[in-house]
Amino acid sequence: MLGAMFREGAALPPNSGPQGSNYYFIDRDGKAFRHILNFLRLGCLDLPRGYGETALLRAEADFYQIQPLLEALRELEVTQGTEVITAALLHADVDATPRMVHFSARRGPHHYELSAARVDTFRANIFCTDPTCLGVLRTRFGVAEGEGEGSPHFRLEWAPCPEGLPEVEYRRLGLQQLWVVGEAGVKREVVGTSGFLEEVLQVALEHGFRLDSVFPDPEDLLNSRSLRFVRH
């Protein structure tokens, strides 16, 4: 199809651009065309990890009548055992509850003072219809195997240890921190809402999701409490 469009003598007049330049406008999906061009350049199909628009790319390849690309897409689906799942939903929300904790702090051999520290407890919910993405999120946040498996939803609860609160008091309250496992098995602590949602955002983008809505302020992603992602 592309060859027929631009073959000498084809009835496809160019559009006039600035400074006497000409250009052609093709009314098709621009994002999918990137992968079509790469296939024509390289001769092989190289899609990003978690690519979720295989059906759209197949439709574009059919429009342009690029048979080798159609065959490569069919082979991709066969090697994965089934047709690539495209449509999926991912929703994550987190709520923080502050409270004051009072405790006795030892200042000397026989000297104790009544002290207080603010503890923020975070409760998060994650819902995802893509089992692969959900499994990555469970692993990243250290959810135990077998806990809630088979369900598209899991919950997390954590409370960072505030400065000034003794470790023994922190443990006595039954609190726990939230750690994620990054590259090379390096662990890092998730301190608050923004850190948690940043981890979810990273996994979502890696699996082909796009951000659909932000609550409460769509213009303030870093201070949001809820994120919704979709993949078509």
TrEMBL record:
Name under which the protein is recorded: Potassium channel tetramerization domain containing 11
Output the GO biological process annotations, alphabetical, semicolon-separated: negative regulation of neuroblast proliferation; negative regulation of smoothened signaling pathway; neuroblast differentiation; neuroblast proliferation; neuron differentiation; positive regulation of neuron differentiation; protein homooligomerization; protein ubiquitination
| SUPFAM superfamilies linked | POZ domain (SSF54695)
Q: In which pathway does it act?
A: Protein modification; protein ubiquitination
Where do the Potassium channel tetramerisation-type BTB domain residues begin and end?
Answer: 21-69
- Keywords for the protein's UniProt record, in alphabetical order: Growth regulation, Ubl conjugation pathway
Gene Ontology MF annotations: identical protein binding
Q: InterPro entries under this entry?
A: KCTD11/21_C (IPR045763), SKP1/BTB/POZ_sf (IPR011333), T1-type_BTB (IPR003131)
- The residue range of the signal peptide is none
Question: Pfam families from the entry?
Answer: BTB_2, KCTD11_21_C
**Domain BTB/POZ: start-end pairs:** 88-231
Which terms in the GO cellular component ontology are assigned? cytoplasm
